[in-house]
Amino acid sequence: MVGQRLAKVTQRRADLRWPLPENFAGRLEGRKVVRLYRRAKFILAELDDGWVWMTHLGMSGRMYIHQETEPNPGKHDHILIRTDGGHTVVYQDHRRFGMMDLVPADDLDDHRLLRDIGPEPLGNNFDGVYLSASLQGRRTPIKSALLDQKIVAGLGNIYVCEALYHSGISPRRLAASVAGRRAEKLVPAIRDVLTKAIAKGGSTLRDYVQASGELGYFQHEFAVYGREGEPCHHCQEPILRLVQSGRSTFFCSKCQR
DNA sequence: CGCGCTCCCTGGCCGC
DNA sequence: TGCGGCCAGGGAGCGC
User: Fold this and answer.
1) Structural domain contains residue A117
2) Are residues A144 and A244 in the same domain?
3) Is residue A201 part of a domain?
4) I want to staple A131 with a disulfide (CB 3.0 to 4.6 A). Which of A171, A183, A208, A226 is the partner?
């Protein structure tokens, strides 16, 4: 999309998770995408009129590219964007937990969904000292703390489970007790899991695919996620599942303390 | 203020 | 084949 003009935008419903902005399609149409980037789990497309088109995929959202100018939209293809290059980018989201917004580039950091977000886990500002300080005094399980985007950006349920396993930390341990030595261990485990997952094209559960349509392959390397009852790769004890703040946690009670 | 639960939504899968 | 219950990658909002 970078360098291309958004020639025709079709909006097939008024809302995703929230209502789309007023005249959304009209405001995108005719704009050129200057830059495509990311902050936390938000996809950001900088436009040539000083605005940023912001997208969150939620749980089930995806963008895919049709090589045709006018593809036949499916039931959950909510937004279709034809570029002047002759391709069509389709936003599909069957659960509609995703969102889109338009924000002036200068105000992006103040956007209500971005302003309190923590540092990027692969960036220089995320280190043991920072994580330790952020966990200090928190009386929530470390699992929940790592899912909190205010502490660190971009970690989801899968990668939190995996990072805790690889650092040998129990998901039930209170965040405050991870501050210090354990936090120093957790940071490289988080970086490692994310880096490896990205290298494998992400994790394909059910129907997730890369933009190219290719599947991700990291799911074959899950140590714990989705492996309830299966043996731990290290100690052979069965992997356990529990529910924390409404989400499944998978872990080894022997290797993670 | 910080925490955990519920809910938003659709659909796949499992057991009966 | 149908139906109810459970589960799913996220996270805002509310009550305690």
Assistant:
1) no
2) yes
3) yes
4) A183
> The CATH number of the domain where A216 resides is what?
1.10.8.50
Range of the domain at A137: 128-251
**A206 strand C contact, CB < 7 Å:** yes
pLDDT of residue A208: 56
A95 CA, C3 C1': separation in Å?
22
Tell me the average pLDDT across A102-109. Answer: 96
- Say what the pLDDT of residue A207 is: 62
Which nucleotide across the nucleic acid strands is nearest to A112, CA versus C1'? C12
Q: Which residues in range 3-62 of chain A are in contact with strand C, contact meaning CB within 7 A of any of its atoms?
A: 17, 40-41, 56, 58-60
E strands within chain A?
6-11, 33-39, 42-47, 51-56, 61-66, 77-83, 88-93, 99-104, 240-244, 247-251
* Domain total in chain A: 2
Higher model confidence: residue A50 or residue A220?
Answer: A50
What are the tens digits of pLDDT across the range A172-227?
999 999 999 999 999 999 999 999 999 988 887 766 555 556 677 788 889 999 99
Residue A35 resides in a domain: yes
| Same domain flag for A98 and A209 | no
| Whole-number distance in Å between A134 CA and C4 C1' | 44
Q: Are residues A133 and A246 in the same domain?
A: yes
- Residue at A39 is within a domain: yes
Q: Judge whether A220 and A205 are in contact, CB under 8 Å.
A: no
pLDDT grade for A3, boundaries at 50, 70 and 90:
very high
Q: At what angle do helices A128-135 and A181-199 cross, to 10 degrees?
A: 120
Closest CA to A115 of A171, A193, A182, A42: A42
Q: CB atoms < 10 A from the CB of A160, how many?
A: 24
Q: What is the mean pLDDT of residues A101-124?
A: 96
